[in-house]
Amino acid sequence: MEYIMTSIGLSLVQGFVLLLIAPLVAGIINKVKARLQKRQGASIFQEYFDICKWWKKATILTPYTGVIFVLAPVVYFMTSFMAATMVPGFLTGQFSLGDAFIFVYILALGRFFMTLSSMDAATSFGGMGGSREIYISVLVEPAVMLAILINSIRYHSTTLSAMVIDYNEAFFTVSAVLACVAFFLVMLAENSRLPVDNPDTHLELTMIHECMTLEYSGKLLSLIHLGSYLKIVVFLALFGALYVPVEIPLALKVLLGAVLIGIVETLNNKMRLFKVRVYLGAAIVLLLLAIIAE
Amino acid sequence: MDFMVTSLLVYLLGTVTLVWPKKAELAAHYFGMLCSIVASGMVVYSSLKYLLSAGSRWLVDLSWGQYSLQADGWSGAFLLLTGVAGVIISIYALDYGKGYLGSRIRALGGLWNLFLLSIVLVLISGDAFTFIISWEIMALVSFMLVNHESEKKKTVSAAYQYMVMTHIGTAAIMVAFYLVGSSAESFSFVDMAQNSLYGYMKDAAFVFAFAGFALKSGLMPLHIWLPNAHPAAPSHVSALMSGVMLKVALYGFGRFAFQFIGMDVFWYGLIVMIMGLVSAFLGVLYATMEVDMKRILAYSSVENMGIIFSAFGCGMVLYSMQFPMLSVVAFTAALVHAVSHSLMKGLLFMSAGCVMHATGSKNIEHMGGLAKKMPYTALFTLIGSMALSSMPFTSGLVGEWLTLQSFITLSQQAGSPEMRLLVVFAFILLGLTGATALGCFVRMYGIAFLGRARTHIVEKAHEMPFFMLAGLGLEAVLIVLIGVMPDLLVNLMQKVVSGTGITPMGNPLGIMWGGSGYYALYSPALIFILFVFIGVFVVASVYRSSTFQTKNVTWNCGTVPTSRQQYSATGFSKPLRRAFDGILNPKRRTTYLRKEHAYFGRKLHYELSIPDLFNDKLYKPLQQMLINSSSSFHRIQEGSVSIYIGYTMVAMIVVLIWGVLL
Prior knowledge:
The structure holds 2 protein chains of 2 kinds. By secondary structure, chain A is mainly alpha-helical.
């Protein structure tokens, strides 16, 4: 009992730590992108300032919105936070609040409420974002399931702490490398990054996630942004802990992952929406090969 | 006195409304519903007794003929589900049924009781004859209930389609019973379990049993009656049909699988699993394309029955691979998901009834903003939609999680590359199904309940009367209770599975794989407490200072946004329709009604239909083949009497010659 209480406490501490560094990681990604584009770029702490700014501002609502609209950002933020408490490797030991499937479904809860809220403001943009988000998530989900499957075949468990990569066993094996590449592709799609979604634009042809947040302002907007920054960090940590077959500290993996995202985002254009199925099909095929090679 | 038999009598008492004097129609309705509430309550009470006691119990053993009633743990699980659904949906029907005042409400009440009676009888029948007779009563009564609004042409054609399909299923089940029973001492279930069936005859019995029960539970490609019959029936009837009747098919199949045929042949389970997985994905894909609320729910039933059967098939495969202990997880998953689906589909069909009651339409394209008009209905529907998208803290995820775990268990034992590929295929389909289900219910709920009213029918919408809300609320509470504290239900269902003769291996919510020392654990209560605790803190910090302003509508490039500018349901599912157009094959037709202006002010007529894949590719060619083959008999049907006399004479001569030669 005492062990469980301590573990829960440590999980929560981990969640708060990840929450604190989340805007920093987002800032680093933006800085890397700016430097690669020969720009000075904003400070890596800019995201903290942005969140504080939004937090102070008033929240403007359209008269058509209801309870779902104001509740969704809280649920979205909470699901990212709960996911942060589940990531293995930092402070959590053998204990984990949920297994890999619960991790996936907790994040799906956030998506459920965000896509619902996108329809609550009664605008075309919101519905468009929700519709596209659903489309992407349907294509991502099989790849996520296969990514869980491969580690659970290897380590005989779906508990996240048990699925942490074993460097002696999976040091640059074919299946480990393939899974690593595939999960990186999945991670970009899950977090609405280029080439699937462009987080920088506000153009109806390109945006997906931003469409859904267009109607938000003030505290609700800062919660959503905090939630998405946290989600990126959570995925980077999960990526590092579960799929990167190199033995370096996890914090370094997260940092390098953020830099890598920055590089990939600079090198790639946004893909046509209906090309995304080819992109995620590639991820699925890689995972399929990894499972056969395992 | 045993409550089970009493409950049958109370149901019978409820059918008195069929001959109730016409003047007191309302009294007849209340009497009928009260009878079904009381009787279903008794069913719940006595089902718990069978669940908790191992082995089978004889209720009534009539020595004349071969008719007997008998219940064991396996039927107990389904009796529990039936009883709970019976009580709750009857409470809902107290108010909902009033909408049928003046249109055969007495028949509705009586048949309702008869329907529940026949379902209970199927579940407690102890021999093949009782089973078939009550199965047939169930089919006929549900046919009459589907056909209740027989003024509508669509209803009648749906009802007759259901009638034909269900009888094909009954025929297959009868063949299966005959094959098993003729190799046993008698047709009672106890003797049939000791049958000496082997080889091809056993395979045939399995195929017939599976085909019959799969048809009743709506697995693809035998599902075509389901999306037509469910929308045609009154809402509380579709709630019972979808929530309970489909599960009764699982009960029957389980009896065959566990007791009569056995699960030692590998491909039996394989077929069940693959058919389940395919139905799950295709079912939810079609659901996402529909705009009729009840058709969405009907296709979603195909999906969920698919998930249930895929878990069951996974268990059969594991059992045939000599892992009986591991197969318990899969069978438990199937049962738990069956119970949870009966709750959530009951809830959503009832809320579809509420929406129809409020707006007079089932088409979600005409709605929008219902959440403001009927807040309680909206809340309960949200919980149901969350459950069907298998969100955390609802019963939906419990079944889904156990299903995923049983496939993970299969993957652990899959040594050969073929098995690996099979598991990969299963996970791809389960992943697609899960995500599409989320999209489907986000779309249904978002379009109907959120945003602004799309047509004027929403304006007169109002909150539902007490008993209808009570029905919705009870289901919602049960869904959340099971979702947060699944241990009780899961352990109960595991006990049921182990009662069929398979040894369990501890708590299925903490699955342990042999020797590896690792657990997979699901303790939603803990996550729920943390989630709510911190969530309340976040909510408090957001709403502490009142900085919310509702000044004006959204900026819309200088124009005032109209309600037509919202995304439509058809538009919402467009990306998915395009991604899977190879399967869906959508037929579009755009006509320009006025052509004087090429670009501005022209009127468009856009038509979109998505024909059911199996209807087009399987049933229509089959029907054509039947018609063609029967028209070839035209040639000998001349219509003149002398030729028919000639036929008779030829036949007589042939018979005579045959008789002489033999």
